[in-house]
């Protein structure tokens, strides 16, 4: 991650008041609330690319929706999970965390089924929030299998009974976005390094590409996360115990909040596009027999980078661990030192001629926060990687190498440049760490240039996520 504009997954509380730039519309960069950030991460985890090629049904007869889950403790993320072919997200979380789920808050992309709910309630969780659309055991009408629909309704009743007899608070937590939030994210996303690299290297590049890609993502995500028919949505809400949200203005407000969050997610998702032969590739020749130099599949690399860009929308505390066979060991964002008040340090950017009142010497970089407040150790024998939304600066490059990180996934727009009080001279010369930057596939061999990820290989991946 770069010097002064990043967000990375392990920043501490107290710096969240320290938004360092201003926005011409609102006076300050709009930020995403923690509740909505956790909710968006649960939706995005539902879309985590599957590394299990087996297409077995999760539950006999029942239509089980893939589900994303974020585990939060003391307002810090300690787990990111998604359903596999054999296990629900709640089951994976229980296997991973066990009794450590006690007093945690769980954010689901679907209302969990009775099988998951009874176990996580039994573990002593504090709060369970879920996205108020079609639940994990789908309630969407299936005319071809009425038995499935009836069983889904029975499961919904069981979930309600478990909810009413548990100490855990089971609820819907959605908050309206702050003013100009979507507009700000759209403006920054269409100008991000990944889109700009495509524009600069493709003659005759269609300037409407980002907008078209964004519209496709909006349609895709709305079909996944929003029930098109309002009447059907009301029926499902009543079945899962949310009949109080079926009357206006509550229902219309709920739909609008859901649409806004989907729009935000699609806007960020379009910023790291699938476009021709662009992806994260290494320019250097690497020994074929060294696993630490093998790249991950482009789908997974894109997914993790979008997580980093999503993190950029919020100043939050982070500690992440676990999604399937990949483990997140830390996140971070750019901020002032822990405990700082907003007015303690200078806030001027590089446009300020007086260098003494510039902010750069006081900012803790995203990479630094991610490494400082990681929730797991970085093991030398395992392949660790860091995702950065921009090129790491000279202050962070030696830290990344010294920590034993094996791979860096980043943009390279600023490589070799010195900007104000931030320089990026050392990234291009970095040795001993594989650098995968966003670019046109050097070999132009398309899929031939990708390494196949096996389940056994993936379990040795540790990830740090930072974002600028």
What do you see in this structure?
The chain is of the alpha/beta class and 468 residues long. It has 13 helices and 14 strands. Helix 3 runs parallel beside helix 4. The N terminus is likely disordered. Its cofactor is Zn(2+). It catalyses: 2'-deoxycytidine + H2O + H(+) = 2'-deoxyuridine + NH4(+); cytidine + H2O + H(+) = uridine + NH4(+). It comes from Sphenodon punctatus. It is an enzyme of class 3 (hydrolase).
Percentage of residues assigned to helices: 25-40%
Distance between the termini: 6 Å
Total strand count, please? 14
Rounded to an integer in angstroms, the radius of gyration calculated over CA atoms is 22 Å
Based on helices, strands and strand pairing, what is the structural class?
alpha/beta
Mean pLDDT: 80
Q: How many helix segments?
A: 13
Percent of residues in β-strands: 5-15%
Instruction: Pick out the low-confidence regions.
Output: 1-27, 53-59, 315-324, 445-461
SSE string: EHEEHEHEHEHHHHHEHEHEHEEEEHE
What is the approximate shape? globular
Major sheet attributes: 7 strands, mixed
Keywords: Hydrolase, Metal-binding, Repeat, Zinc
Cofactor: Zn(2+)
Protein name: Cytidine and dCMP deaminase domain-containing protein 1
Domain CMP/dCMP-type deaminase: 51-147, 299-424
Main attributes?
disordered N terminus, 468 residues, Cytidine and dCMP deaminase domain-containing protein 1, EC 3.5.4.5, single chain, Cytidine_deaminase-like
């Amino acid at each position: 991650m770069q010097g002064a504009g990043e967000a990375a997954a392990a920043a501490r509380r107290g710096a969240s008041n320290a938004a360092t730039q201003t926005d011409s519309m609102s006076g300050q960069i709009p930020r995403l609330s923690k509740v909505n950030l956790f909710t968006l991460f649960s939706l995005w985890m539902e879309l985590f690319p599957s590394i299990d090629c087996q297409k077995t049904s999760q539950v006999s007869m029942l239509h089980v929706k893939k589900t994303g889950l974020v585990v939060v403790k003391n307002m810090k993320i300690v787990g990111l999970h998604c359903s596999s072919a054999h296990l629900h997200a709640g089951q994976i979380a229980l296997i991973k965390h066990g009794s450590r789920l006690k007093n945690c808050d769980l954010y689901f992309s679907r209302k969990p089924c009775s099988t998951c709910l009874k176990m996580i309630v039994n573990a002593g969780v504090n709060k369970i929030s879920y996205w108020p659309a079609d639940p994990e055991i789908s309630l969407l009408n299936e005319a071809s299998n009425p038995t499935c629909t009836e069983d889904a309704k029975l499961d919904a009743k069981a979930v309600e009974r478990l909810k009413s007899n548990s100490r855990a608070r089971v609820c819907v937590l959605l908050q309206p976005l702050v003013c100009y939030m979507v507009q700000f994210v759209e403006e920054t996303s269409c100008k991000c390094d990944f889109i700009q690299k495509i524009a600069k290297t493709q003659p005759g590049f269609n300037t409407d590409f980002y907008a078209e890609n964004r519209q496709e993502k909006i349609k895709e995500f709305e079909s996944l996360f929003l029930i098109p028919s309002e009447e059907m949505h009301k029926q499902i809400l009543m079945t899962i115990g949310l009949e109080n949200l079926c009357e206006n203005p509550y229902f219309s407000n709920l739909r609008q909040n859901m649409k806004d969050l989907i729009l935000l997610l699609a806007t960020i998702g379009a910023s790291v596009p699938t476009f021709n032969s662009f992806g994260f590739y290494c320019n250097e020749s690497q020994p074929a027999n060294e696993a630490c130099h093998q790249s991950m599949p482009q789908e997974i690399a894109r997914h993790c980078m979008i997580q980093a860009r999503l993190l950029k929308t919020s100043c939050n505390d982070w500690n992440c661990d676990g999604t399937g066979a990949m483990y997140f060991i830390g996140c971070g964002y750019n901020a002032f030192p822990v405990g700082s008040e907003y007015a303690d340090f200078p806030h001027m950017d590089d446009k300020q001629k007086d260098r003494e009142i510039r902010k750069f010497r006081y900012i803790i970089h995203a990479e630094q926060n991610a490494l400082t407040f990681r929730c797991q150790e970085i093991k030398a024998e395992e392949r660790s990687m860091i995702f950065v939304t921009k090129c790491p600066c000279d202050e962070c490059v030696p830290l990344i190498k010294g920590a034993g990180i094996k791979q860096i996934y980043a943009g390279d727009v600023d490589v070799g440049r010195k900007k104000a009080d931030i320089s990026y001279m050392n990234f291009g010369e970095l040795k001993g760490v594989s650098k995968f930057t966003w670019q046109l596939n050097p070999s132009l061999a398309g899929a031939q240039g990708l390494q196949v990820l096996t389940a056994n290989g993936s379990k040795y991946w540790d990830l740090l996520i930072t974002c600028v």
